[in-house]
Amino acid sequence: MTLTARTPHSDVDLFSDETLHDPYPTYRRLRDQGGAVVLDTLGAWALPRYHSVRHALGDWETFSASGVALNDTVAPMLVGTVLATDPPAHGALRSVLSDRLGPRAVRPLEQDIATRADALVDGLLEKGSFDAVTDLATEFPFSVVFDLIGLPDEARPHMLRWADATFTVLGPMNTRAAQGLASLGEMFEWLATLGPEDLKEGSMGRAIFQAADDGRIRHESCIPLLSAYAAAGLDTTINTIANAVHLFATHPDQWDLVRADPGLVPSALNEVLRYESPVQVFGRRTTRAAETEDGITIEAGAQVLVLYGSGNRDERHYPEPDRFDVTRNPSDHLSFGYGTHACAGQALARIEAQSIIRALAKRARRIHIGRPTRHLNNTVRGLATLPVIGFEV
Ligand code: HEM
């Protein structure tokens, strides 16, 4: 990497506990420096602005997904996964997932998911106090996604730890990533023992093996695809639901707007996702030199950090980005990514999160919470605990 006097650079550690607790002031400083900033501690480039994030995600030929992990230990383990594969090979892997996760495929699930959300929220209201992370935000996607993938029940006790590890190991090889490696290894080892007969009849997991039998993908791709389903669908949705409860409890005026007009729920969810991006960062590797809108050149072969969470708070794109406003409807937010690798599960995630918001809005005029604690992970942002101490109905 050749730095000139004009190259913006920063000695900030984006993965320190302190920054992970509240990355937004750091993001703002990076955005003010430029569309691309060298992180001295990693010898890599960060893309902090909305435009630079979206541009990189839209140009897979220059910003290759082979660099999705920010360390060299995990990168080889991801070869063959949908997340780390560029077109054209990406297309076949992705189409197997889209068959079952596309908007048309998940629409028939909507009613059942809404009924489950109503039942879960009714039970919690009856209890009066509970933990919104464990009892609501985790319980819900876990039951929905686990059943859809059709994984055997023996994985239930391990799945959350494995999913959390899958995200944290994508960061730089710090203590958090090093600790996650053991869990990741365990997950892949267990997945490798599975055959089609282990996955429930008619499930999304079984369909992956069917696609291999039909010659659409290679048999070696089945386990990496299963891992994509199993990990990607949990922490992301869990954090979204917990963030939603937190934001609505702390912004009662915004909650009043949602309750007064349930038609606002899709817009409100977009705002929750923009305000607290569940995935804060993934990587890319440049295949050739690239230039940002503000004229900064990133060399070929560079590791790049795509800062979704910073792009979503870019004042150059969203006026008053630190204000939580459910009427804003930022449908172009970056939290599901953009372009080739844009989230394959976003239709399902929207149904899950919107069902919970609707179920709460129908029943709770106010949500009263205690002090939340944060869960630190290298790439996803969310809470460890969020005590709900009461409702007003
Ligand atoms: C609110 C919840 C969710 C968020 C915020 C989210 C976020 C993301 C993001 C940012 C990406 C893009 C990665 C990149 O740019 O490299 C992605 C990809 C992906 N997501 Fe999600 N996700 C969510 C829910 C889900 C669910 C429920 C599933 C499946 C059950 C899922 C499956 C996937 C898969 C398979 C990919 C890889 C797509 C590809 O590489 O082509 N996601 N997600």
Could you explain the architecture of this structure?
This protein is an alpha+beta fold. The chain has one domain: Orthogonal Bundle (Cytochrome p450). The chain is built from 16 helices and 13 strands. The chain has a 6-stranded mixed sheet with strand order 1-2-3-9-6-4. Strands 5-13-10 form a 3-stranded antiparallel sheet. It has a two-stranded antiparallel ribbon with strand order 7-8. The N and C termini lie far apart (59 Å). Bound molecules: protoporphyrin IX containing FE. The site of protoporphyrin IX containing FE (HEM) has 29 residues, from helix 4, helix 11, helix 12 and helix 16.
Features:
alpha+beta, globular, 47% helix, 6-stranded mixed beta sheet, 12% strand, Cytochrome p450, 3-stranded antiparallel beta sheet
Please give the radius of gyration in angstroms: 21 Å
Q: Which band does the percent of strand residues land in?
A: 5-15%
Major sheet, described briefly? 6 strands, mixed
Shape: globular
Let me know the number of strands: 13
List the topology elements.
Blueprint: E1 9-10, H1 17-21, H2 24-33, E2 37-39, E3 44-47, H3 50-58, E4 63-64, H4 89-101, H5 103-106, H6 110-127, E5 130-131, H7 132-149, H8 156-168, H9 175-191, H10 204-213, H11 222-232, H12 235-250, H13 252-260, H14 265-275, E6 281-286, E7 290-291, E8 297-298, E9 303-307, H15 308-311, H16 346-363, E10 366-369, E11 373-376, E12 381-385, E13 387-392
Helix pairs in contact: 6-7, 6-16, 7-12, 8-9, 10-11, 12-16
The structure holds protoporphyrin IX containing FE.
The site of protoporphyrin IX containing FE has 29 residues, from helix 4, helix 11, helix 12 and helix 16.
